[in-house]
Specification:
single chain; mainly alpha
Length: 156
């Protein structure tokens, strides 16, 4: 996976492409958080769910379907975000979906279940230049973790 450090960069870039003046700070913060949310699936390890299961790591939570649901639910908070529905949906959907896209560029794991619930098949992109991140903070604070961060910083 790409790291918690670089996932929020994607909605920030999207906000600047849309036009930063059209995106409230609240929406930008929410989209940055949404870009990290798919990795909540790592708790499945604690419940004995296998990595490759549809409810395992990089499964359903990394799908475009979940990104769409997050985008749609976010529309309920239009007054809080103080932006157009179009911009709310775009930033929340793309912020969440970008997580899977970045992970599909990594060189490890079992791929991303982009099209769940229609299929649990997993995919990588044809090129995978990003070093896969170790799971867990203690594993990340190592020489390998530093190498992963470096590969992300110059690519992303």
């Amino acid at each position: 996976m790409a790291t918690i450090i670089t996932h929020p960069l994607m909605p920030i870039v999207v906000a600047y492409v849309i036009g930063r003046e059209k995106i409230s700070t609240r929406l930008l913060i929410a989209a940055s958080i949404a870009s990290i949310i798919p990795d909540i699936d790592v708790i499945s390890f604690k419940f004995g769910v296998p990595y490759g299961d549809q409810f395992g790591h990089r499964g359903f939570s990394h799908s475009l379907f979940i990104a769409m649901i997050i985008g749609l639910v976010s529309l309920l908070f239009k007054p809080y975000f103080n932006c157009t529905k179009k911009h709310i949906f775009a930033l929340m959907f793309l912020g969440t979906a970008s997580h899977g896209f970045l992970d599909a560029l990594t060189n490890g794991g079992s791929g991303i279940a982009f099209f769940w619930p229609f299929t649990s098949e997993r995919y990588f992109f044809p090129i995978t230049p990003i070093e896969v991140s170790p799971i867990g903070l203690s594993n990340f604070l190592t020489a390998r973790g530093a190498s992963v961060l470096w590969s992300e910083l110059w690519l992303i």
